[in-house]
Amino acid sequence: MTTEVKQMPGLLPDEWLVSYAAGALTEAQALVVATHVGYHPALQARLAEAEDIGGAFLEESAPAQMDDDAFEALMARIDAAPEPAAPAPLPAGDEDLPAPLRRYLGRTLDSLKWRTMGPGMKQHKLANGPGGERLWLLRARGGTAMPVHDHRGTEFTLILRGSYHVGDQHFTPGLMEVAGPEVKDHQPMIDEGEDCICLVVTDAPIRLHSLIGRMVQPFIGL
Ligand code: ZN
Fold first, then answer.
1. Residues with CB under 5 A from ligand 1 (ion)
2. How far is the CA of 10 from the centre of ligand 1 (A)?
3. Which residue, among 1, 2, 37, has the nearest Cα to 16 in the 3D structure?
4. How far is the CA of 54 from the centre of ligand 1 (A)?
């Protein structure tokens, strides 16, 4: 029996959970997925199932018979494997954020250095991954219209604080927007009120529509 979870906007589709469980995501994508899952008990249950399915698949695809030497060698390797290390203690503050992100940052969002990237928008770069992948935090003032853009790859945006909307879709803390090349003229509108802080990973540069945006793009590194 599998738990029925309706695929709803803002929750990551199963295939990403399966890829995460299989260790097939980049480190940056894995951090975003682990943080997203940290908000949703239903996704934690789905992930546990995906891990079971992955384990069952491995068992089925293992050779039916192993000779005794190979078996003993395998058991010796398992015995010799080090105990998994205890997770690092959580830094103080930001109790509203899931543990994977707090551990990764090792400090609070407010204590990070934020660089202005445009009117009402600041960023904090976290990491560059393989193939032009970028992991960063966006901090946008309430009421800001994000620059209109298309996507050459996949853009994951996980909302941590505040909220934004795209058309009639509303994204609040814990919800994730996945936008691929099929999403054109993408323009998140930050809701009025507190700053909206998002964890973003893109695997290819976005394509900004405005000339000024394209001119500053190399400098802000998106
Ligand atoms: Zn986008």
1. 155, 179, 186
2. 14
3. 37
4. 31
Distance from the CA of 204 to the center of ligand 1, in angstroms? 11
- Closest by alpha carbon to 28, among 157, 190, 195? 157
Q: How far is the first Cα of the chain from the last one, in angstroms, to the nearest whole number?
A: 43
Q: Specify the DSSP element, H or E, that contains 169.
A: strand 169-171
CA of 99 relative to ligand 1 center, distance in Å = 26
Tokens 């990491």 -> residue: 127
pLDDT by residue (tens digit) across 76-121?
776 776 676 777 788 899 999 999 999 999 999 999 999 999 899 9
Query: In angstroms, what is the span from residue 14 Cα to ligand 1's centroid?
Result: 21
Give the helix/strand (H/E) hosting 137.
strand 134-140
Q: Whole-prediction pTM value?
A: 0.81
Q: Edge-to-edge strand order for the sheet containing 155-161?
A: 115-118, 121-128, 134-140, 196-202, 155-161, 176-179
- Give the domains, in start order, of the chain with CATH numbers: 107-220 (2.60.120.10)
pLDDT tens digits, one per residue of 14-67 = 888 888 988 889 999 999 999 999 999 999 998 888 888 766 665 665 555 556
- 186 alpha carbon – ligand 1 mean position (Å): 5
Distances in whole angstroms, Cα of residue 28 to Cα of each of 35, 137, 174: 11, 12, 17
